[in-house]
Amino acid sequence: MDMKDLILEIIEHIESNLGQEMNLDTIADKFGYSKFHLNRIFCENVGVTIYKYIQFRRLSVAAEKLVTTGKPIVEIAYDAGYQSQQAFSIAFRQFYSYTPLQYRRMEVFIPLLKRFTAQNIMISLYANINMPFAA
What residues form the membrane-spanning segments (predicted)? Predict the structure, then answer.
């Protein structure tokens, strides 16, 4: 399996399990790599660690639900994998600078991180290959 395919499989796994308990150890075990190696190659190609990718994607999906649905905030928090509305609100405010309720009232969705695609990875790989030639 080449690096692009590995990164895409990891992303697919993360995206399919955003609402589930997930961490670097379980992902590394699933794909048969050490967590340090897996996190390094993921970060080199995606630009953030696996932990940050999961956190940003969960919060982005939650932000979209806040704006596009009338679901209670506590349900959105649980859907995003948070154990409590309080933990969700703290994380949400840290990254969006608004509480979930304030964000909902703005009625504008701004994702922290969109889903990474094969095209993003190819651009990243190309940039890494050509980086030494940049002056």
Answer: none
What would the two tokens of residue 85 be? 């509305």
Which amino acid would we find at residue 48? V
User: Amino acid letter at 36?
Assistant: F
**By three-state DSSP, how is residue 64 classified?**
helix
Whole-number pLDDT of residue 120: 57
Q: With beta carbons less than 8 A apart as the criterion, state whether 90 and 98 touch.
A: no
CA dihedral 45, 48, 54, 58 (to 10 degrees): -110
Residue 112 reports pLDDT greater than 80? no
Residue 45: closest CA among 9, 99, 93, 91 = 9
Domains and CATH numbers, the chain: 3-108 (1.10.10.60)
The answer to whether the predicted template modeling score (pTM) of the entire model surpasses 0.85 is no
Chain Cα centroid distance, residue 81: 12
- Give the span between the Cα atoms of 60 and 5, in whole angstroms: 24
